[in-house]
Every structure is written in structure tokens, then in C-alpha cells.
Amino acid sequence: MTRKITATAAALALLATGCSASTDSSAPGGTLITSGTSTATSTPTPSSTTPAPATTTAGRTPTVTEVTASPSATESTTAASTTAAATPTPTPTVSLDPSPLAGTGGGPQQPSSVPTLNSITDEDRGRALETAKAIVTAYTSGKPYKEWSEELYPMIDPKLQNQYGPNSRIDIFKGTVTNAELVDDPTLKVPGGDNPYWLTVCVKVEGSISPAYYVRLHRTAERPDKWKASHILEPQGFNSFVKERMKEQNK
């Protein structure tokens, strides 16, 4: 009798345990135990917001739309490209008209404002002779350089002045003027008559290192009565000058 009660109690205990296990949801990981066998089930985590389904392109084939250019458009583009490549960019040029007043018509010509000399008179020649004598007189004075230059330089060109200085041996020129005469200077020849601008005078001297000095004189239309010397040459120097000048003129 006692064994039956014990067996019955054990059976009830096992049955109670199985029922409890089948309804127990507190097992870790949501494990359901049935008759001693555990089956793992995934329990979804509750969410307050249901996410929108993700858009996916997996498994889809992209649609490609083929655009075909019209023949006329292609030809126009090709022609434009060819023309642009073949046509050089024009370079701007500046035209310089050598005669800016050409074609504007003529008018009465204004006379030149620069005066000219067309002839030479005996009075002009006389003044030239006196000037040459005064120049050689100062040149052969034998005075110290300061006085010598003060008397001579106003009557000669600056280029001739530069040939002398304080250390020049001007004492060797000392002499006395005796005479002066016009000479035929071939370097002064001009077509149609006498040269109205230039004359050459030979001034003879006694006691100087040279027996004579050739003075080449010139004047301008602005100062027709005033002659100035461009050269004071000894006879040998004058002859060399004439030869060189004629050689240049005959080239």
C-alpha cells in the first residue's frame, strides 16, 4: 500500500514538472523544454517604430536609353570643328600711311622759314679777308694761353677750339701777318657759280713756324656779315686736307 502511494506521488511530481516546463517562458534565450529536449527559438526584440522596408537594386537590371544623334547634327558639328581648325585666327595689323595727307588736295606752298644765301659779293670777300687776317694775328700773337684764347676763340668754331689747351705750344706760332689773299679751294666748288657760304684765305706770316696759314671760313644766312674759321692749316696740312676731301667727294 505504501509503495503504491509513493509511485503515484512520483508520477504526479513528474507530470507537474513537465507541465511547468512546457509553460515556462522565463528560461534564458527563450528555451522551451519538452520532455527533456530543448529547442532554441528566436524571440524578436520589440520595437516602438517599424522601419520602412529598405530599397534594394539587387537582382534588378538597369535600364539604358540609347540616344542616336541625327546625321545632320553630326555633320554640322564635324564641319564646324574642321572649319575652326583650318581657319587661322587673323592677326591685327597696323597700317602706317607714309603720306597721311595724301588725297587731301594741294594748296599754295608756304615759303621756307630758313633764309638762304644765293650769291657772294666783293664786300663779302673783303670781310672774309679781314676776318682771316684777324684770326691769324691772334693765332700768332705769342701771348699766354688765357689772353690768346680770349682773342682767338670768338672767331673760330668750337671743334677747332678743342684742338688747343693750356698746355699747347702756342708760342711756336708767334709771327707777324704780312698779307692775305683768296685761294682757289676745289673742295668748295658748287654747280653754277661761287660758293656763297665758304671761302678759303691764305694768310702769309713772317717769323712763325710756318710761312703761311690757310684759313677756311664759313658764314650762314642768319649772320651773312660774320665769318668764322673751321680750320687753320699750314700749307702741307691744307694740301692733305684737300686730297682727302676730294677723294671722299669722288666716291
Automatic annotation (TrEMBL):
Keyword rRNA-binding: no
Keyword vocabulary terms for this entry: Signal
Top-rank taxon, per record: Bacteria
Compositional bias (Low complexity): 28-95
Biased composition (Polar residues): 109-120
Region (Disordered): 20-120
Extent of the signal sequence: 1-21
Keyword Ligase: no
Transmembrane segments: none
Stated name of the protein: Carbonic anhydrase
